[in-house]
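Quick start: what a row looks like.
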Amino acid sequence: MEGLILYTTLMMAAGSLVMAVYWLVARPASPVEDRLREINPRLSEDAVAEPVSEVIVRRIAKPLAEKVPVSPRNVRRLRRRLMRAGFYNENAVLIYQAIRLASVILLPVLVFFFMTVVLGWPMDVTTMGLTILAVCYGAFMPIFILSRMITVRQHRIRKALPDALDLMVVCVEAGLGLNAALNRVGQEMDLVEPALSEELTITNREIRAGRAREEALRNLGERTGVEDIKSLVAILVQTDRFGTSIAESLRVFADSMRIKRRQRAEELVAKAAVKLIFPLLLFIFPALLIVLMGPALIKMYELFYFLAE
């Protein structure tokens, strides 16, 4: 009987969740759409069609994000972090805030439901403590995931930058201008590192749209947040401002980047010996101690036991 009640409760909860999502996402028919469809079905579809992502943003993400008041300064900071993670959509801030609010609400509800209904735990201090812990976890999990995505993307850009610089030096020495070289490098780097190619493509589009090249380059460094990109931008801006050789400046910077990449590899190799100490002490050394000292300890135990008798 208890199993039947539990099964019925789970089915009703799942059905209610599906109906709620359908009611929020599905667009109800209106008399205007029905009349347009009667007049010209193809024209009505083109006129009233709306992407599913826009429907989700308008009906779910935006109402949820409006429940959390955020200052304009924090919104700008959050948008900068989302851009560094590779999210350039204008609704990225709304979607992120909606995901964070949903994780804060849904995760503790699921944990509480699982502990009280599925496991049958009473509503004691342990249950409430785990629910509060789920609230904290749901609040900080999106922040941690976003920070991790930013770190991984910056590492990939930093790793692919020396190869892009070598290609840029070849393009400039072949007679291409800086804008054409950036465009060409952005196209070629799409096969090696899409993140760096995407950033260079955005910079080229800004220059083509009429923005000053210096401003577009500075925006490139601000979007990525990579110090090597900012150093490259500073060199290109100074070279363009003072009229010096772009190829020579890029060659020197590319040499320094290769040296820096080799130094980073050597640093990681030097850290590996220190990092291996902890798994050796925690996992390998106890096993070796048991294998080597085990027989001797057994013999010593038998000897002392025999002497005690």
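That is the whole record. DSSP finds 13 helices and no strands in the chain. The longest helix spans residues 125-173.
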